[in-house]
Amino acid sequence: MADAEPTTFVDANVVIAYLSAHDPDLMARAQSIIEVDALRVLSVTVLLETAWVLDRTYRYRARDIAAAILGFLSRANVMIAELPKDTVVAMVGRWHEGRIGSIGDAMIAASMATSRAELIYSFDRRFPRDLGWEVHAGPMA
User: Fold this and answer.
1) Alpha-carbon distance 115 to 22, whole Å?
2) Is 96 a domain residue?
3) pLDDT tens, 97-111?
4) Could you tell me if residue 141 is inside a domain?
5) pLDDT tens digits for 38-91?
6) 3-state secondary structure of 129
7) Contacts of 57 (CB under 8 A, 6+ apart)
8) Region of 103 on the Ramachandran plot (φ > 0 left; ψ -120 to 50 alpha; else beta)
9) Nearest partner of 57 among 1, 19, 7, judged by Cα
10) Angle formed by the axes of helices 103-114 and 44-56, to 10°?
11) Which domain, by its residues, includes 42?
12) Structural domains of the chain, count
């Protein structure tokens, strides 16, 4: 029996080069890594770091970052290590629509949806409340 192909992860710097097109050489190298038939896996941390760099370094707007990440996640060979891809796409889509305040909240919401959470304690008044769980700020002092 042949061995299964090893899982290949992609780091944030490759995704950033792919999405930003800031450096044509790096973008071409990123394309050669990503635009293949083989599976490419990224962690939630890669999505968070990618969004942070596109925002802070390249000054992309949140809506444009969300659109770029959604486009990237639409690739059939791209998977998320920790969460179901369809759940991540749904929550990033809500972020893109302005229904979730940040990519961080989108990933928390994806984790909550995956684990069927019923409650979250958060001081964030913008945390999504329409996804079937309760949002509490904790007991009042």
Assistant:
1) 37
2) yes
3) 999 999 999 999 999
4) no
5) 999 999 999 999 999 999 999 999 999 999 999 999 999 999 999 999 999 999
6) coil
7) none
8) alpha
9) 19
10) 160
11) 12-100
12) 1
